[in-house]
């Protein structure tokens, strides 16, 4: 079964955003629409509960209910949005079929293609190319998260080296450190998922509601 984070990444890619925009507290209209579409696709293509889906987006289940109802109404009136949602859902279902077949070990595949790109690349199947593309997107997200964590850690060093630690700086240090911890957890989770060590998702509600 495809992970919700992959649905978020696919949707973000189709809308031209970063996956982090989808789960962040970004309420601009284009990002909000993309977020609602991702929630809708997750609900329609996975057996996950509203609570689990909401948690993946840092929202609660009421936001997912609203998003599903909103997109259902909008795709009836907007053929372009309907086609886009359908394309994302098909992509999700295609990836699920790959997983159902036992998945593709992309590292040996990448090594074979790198060793003989002319012959191996031309003979790669659609599923193999899709698996490589999906892994590339995952690695790009990991790299972006790592880059942000490094920048934030540099900021923490700058804050703590300040001779005068005001209350505002202390609050910034706490918030920045919390963000670093969240990024590090996300990186470890992504790497575990790439190794096929995806943990079971717990059905909990965080009590927050965002649009």
TrEMBL record:
<dbReference type="GO" id="GO:0005524">
    <property type="term" value="F:ATP binding"/>
</dbReference>
<dbReference type="GO" id="GO:0003688">
    <property type="term" value="F:DNA replication origin binding"/>
</dbReference>
<dbReference type="GO" id="GO:0005886">
    <property type="term" value="C:plasma membrane"/>
</dbReference>
<dbReference type="InterPro" id="IPR013159">
    <property type="entry name" value="DnaA_C"/>
</dbReference>
<dbReference type="InterPro" id="IPR018312">
    <property type="entry name" value="Chromosome_initiator_DnaA_CS"/>
</dbReference>
<dbReference type="Pfam" id="PF08299">
    <property type="entry name" value="Bac_DnaA_C"/>
</dbReference>
<dbReference type="InterPro" id="IPR010921">
    <property type="entry name" value="Trp_repressor/repl_initiator"/>
</dbReference>
<feature type="domain" description="Chromosomal replication initiator DnaA C-terminal">
    <location>
        <begin position="3"/>
        <end position="71"/>
    </location>
</feature>
<protein>
    <recommendedName>
        <fullName>Chromosomal replication initiator DnaA C-terminal domain-containing protein</fullName>
    </recommendedName>
</protein>
<dbReference type="GO" id="GO:0006275">
    <property type="term" value="P:regulation of DNA replication"/>
</dbReference>
<dbReference type="GO" id="GO:0006270">
    <property type="term" value="P:DNA replication initiation"/>
</dbReference>
């Amino acid at each position: 079964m495809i992970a919700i984070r992959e649905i978020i990444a696919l949707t973000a890619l189709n809308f031209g955003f970063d996956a982090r925009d989808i789960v962040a507290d970004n309420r601009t209209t284009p990002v909000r629409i993309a977020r609602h579409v991702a929630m809708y696709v997750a609900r329609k293509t996975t057996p996950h509960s509203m609570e689990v889906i909401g948690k993946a987006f840092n929202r609660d289940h009421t936001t997912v209910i609203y998003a599903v109802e909103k997109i259902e109404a909008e795709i009836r009136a907007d053929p372009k949005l309907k086609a886009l949602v359908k394309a994302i859902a098909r992509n999700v279902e295609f990836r699920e079929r790959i997983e159902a077949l036992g998945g593709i070990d992309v590292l040996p595949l990448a090594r074979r293609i790198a060793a003989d790109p002319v012959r191996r690349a031309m003979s790669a199947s659609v599923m193999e190319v899709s698996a490589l593309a999906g892994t590339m997107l995952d690695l790009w997200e990991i790299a972006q998260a790592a880059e942000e964590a490094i920048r934030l850690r540099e900021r923490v060093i700058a804050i703590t080296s300040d001779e005068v630690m005001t209350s505002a700086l202390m609050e910034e240090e706490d918030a920045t450190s919390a963000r670093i911890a969240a990024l590090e957890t996300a990186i470890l989770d992504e790497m575990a998922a790439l190794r096929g060590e995806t943990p079971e998702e717990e059905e909990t509600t965080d009590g927050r509601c965002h649009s």
